[in-house]
Amino acid sequence: MHSAGWICCVLSLVLASFEITSIQFAIKDHKYAIMEKCHLRAVNRSIKLFDLRIKLLKLPITNVLVKWSLLKLSNGYLPFNHNYTLDGCKFLRHSNHLINNFVYGIFKDYTNLNHTCPYNHDVIVDSFPSRSAKDLDLMFLAKGDYAIDSAWYTDGILRADGRLKFTFA
């Protein structure tokens, strides 16, 4: 009896999917950075690719702070988990936070944000795909609609913020 329930759980996880539904990203300081590209394109019915290119105008960047939170849709987007703060320079040197590692691991193969500070180049996310949850190992999420809100700071000043909405089904 117990093993049949476990098999159903595993089958449900394997058949689950992660689909990006929308992306909003805004530069707050246009003397600091310019957004050259931010779009979500459909390859087919089941795969969407996200592209982002931000031209940084004041280089090098020697400190980055990211504040982010995971929200779940339930009569509006409500906090699903805690708010997180990530020192972008220290994180890539000593990445020992489980949730930050998980989120970074999802998109690290699609971005040039893959080394410690200083950053002397533009920020690029290239063709980040929606994919099966099996590939993402999203076992801790219940099925539903979610959003990740983020705020990006350098030198203690808000430079950009964004919201990525996705469905886990």
Automatic annotation (TrEMBL):
<dbReference type="Pfam" id="PF06477">
    <property type="entry name" value="DUF1091"/>
</dbReference>
<protein>
    <submittedName>
        <fullName>Uncharacterized protein LOC117570850 isoform X1</fullName>
    </submittedName>
</protein>
<dbReference type="InterPro" id="IPR010512">
    <property type="entry name" value="DUF1091"/>
</dbReference>
<keyword id="KW-0732">Signal</keyword>
<feature type="signal peptide">
    <location>
        <begin position="1"/>
        <end position="16"/>
    </location>
</feature>
